[in-house]
Amino acid sequence: MKNITRTVWILSLVSLFTDTASEMLYPIMPIYLESIGFSVLLIGILEGFAEATAGLSKGYFGKLSDNSGKRMPFVQLGYGLSAISKPMMAISIYPLWIFCARTIDRFGKGIRTGARDAILSDQATPKTKGEIFGFHRAMDTLGAVFGPTLALIYLYYFPKDYKTLFYLAFLPGVLAIVASFLLKDKKSIVTKKVSTPFFSFLNYWSSSPLVYRKVVIGLLIFTLFNSSDVFLLLRAKQAGLNDSMVIGVYIFYNLIYALFSLPIGILADRIGLKKIFVVGLGLFAIVYIGMSFNTNLYIFFGLFALYGIYAAATEGISKAWISNITDQKDTATAIGTFAGFQSICTMIASSLAGLIWYKFGVAATFITTATITIFVIIYFLVAIPYPQNPIRKLTNNG
Positive or negative CA dihedral for 157, 163, 167, 170? Predict the structure, then answer.
């Protein structure tokens, strides 16, 4: 833990508080929206629009952060918007207001993502990226354990009192805002002022290192077929788990994810980020094949445990990998651009999964995803050379 600096600790606590607030609402969001008159179609449009906003803004604000040489204003504003969006959801039930509140939440995520990950990258050396990003993911994911647990406890004593839960979720959000102001930008960051059109981050693709483009292509192909976790939970419910058990298995998955993120990050620094990422994809394929046929409760918990280890081996590791193969001055742009494309692919993935599920059944949905994942593993093994030397100051595309 000697590599975990004060800055990394504070940023990780900010993420922990924010994710606790968000995940308090995750289990009840669809129920609440239906209770105030939203149809399933309208919920889908709302979530799609909100995620599209987050996706497009990640690349832009990452580029803007690099161009301005500043990080903390984006982090503070991003977390601040996400915090105030929580009580906004309960103030009014008019659809336009709900759209505004939900979009503000996702817009906040888009503003902060690239700048925050660039700060994490700057706090590490190329040999400690896995540990730093792994620690941050562990703390962030603990919020996904605390949040749903707090929501379940509250709703046990106050059933269907959803509005109060939105107000309560504001409290950890406030803690996140306060903690973010304990950090300041480094004075050493100096860049010339340049204009930053909204889609200017797209230009980075052509000027980025070749290995970055190869890695991101593989990541996006995988994302295109990696649908929302909701489908895994739906599969568990379809197999006979009741609502409480479904939420319980979701909390269990996040607990495994949080516990394994740091040790896997440290291991990745020792044996290679690419190796760990590929192993993670292998676990993902096993989980999806298992989900295709399993109906046993205990095996479901085993599969969700493997799914947590897969997440620990890929989420933070992918960002650590990207930050190691791009120029330091472009870190926020590189991660923001990837995260933006990833958000768009995630939306498409869920639509594809829903379509395959509807047309061909649950087994076809999971087998298709597992098959594509195996091809992505082969792509990474063949197309991406190993090892890749970390790029800190880059002057060309090679």
Answer: positive
- pLDDT given for residue 387 in this prediction: 55
Structure tokens at 145: 């354990």
Amino acid at the residue 162: Y
Going 149 to 256 to 370 to 387, the CA torsion angle's sign is positive
Q: 3-state DSSP call for residue 322?
A: helix
d(CA 84, CA 94): 17
Please tell me the least confidently modeled range out of 97-106, 146-155, 370-379, 383-392: 383-392
User: How many C-beta neighbours within 10 Å does residue 84 have?
Assistant: 16
Q: How far apart are CA 106 and CA 112, in angstroms?
A: 10
What is the C-alpha separation between 138 and 256, in angstroms, rounded? 9
Span 345-373, average pLDDT: 86
d(CA 29, CA 16): 20
Tally Cβ neighbours within 10 Å of residue 300. Answer: 23
Instruction: Report yes or no: 294 and 302 within 8 Å, Cβ to Cβ.
Output: no
The position carrying tokens 């516990």 is: 259
DSSP state of 390: P
Distance between CA atoms of 113 and 103, rounded to whole angstroms? 15
Of all residues in the chain, what percent carry a pLDDT higher than 70? 92
Signed CA dihedral, 44, 254, 374, 366: sign only: negative
- Contact (CB, 8 A) for 215 and 337: no
Separation between Cα atoms, residue 284 and residue 229, nearest integer Å: 12
Which of 258, 397, 387, 396 minimizes the C-alpha distance to 324?
Answer: 387
- Output the pTM of the full model: 0.85
The dihedral built from the CA positions of residue 116, 52, 278 and 312, taken in this order, carries a sign that is positive
Question: How many beta carbons lie within 10 A of that of residue 287, not counting itself?
Answer: 25
The amino acid that residue 100 corresponds to is C
Mean pLDDT of the chain: 86
Give the pair of three-digit tokens for residue 97: 């207001």
48-76 pLDDT, tens per residue?
Answer: 777 777 777 888 888 888 888 889 999 99
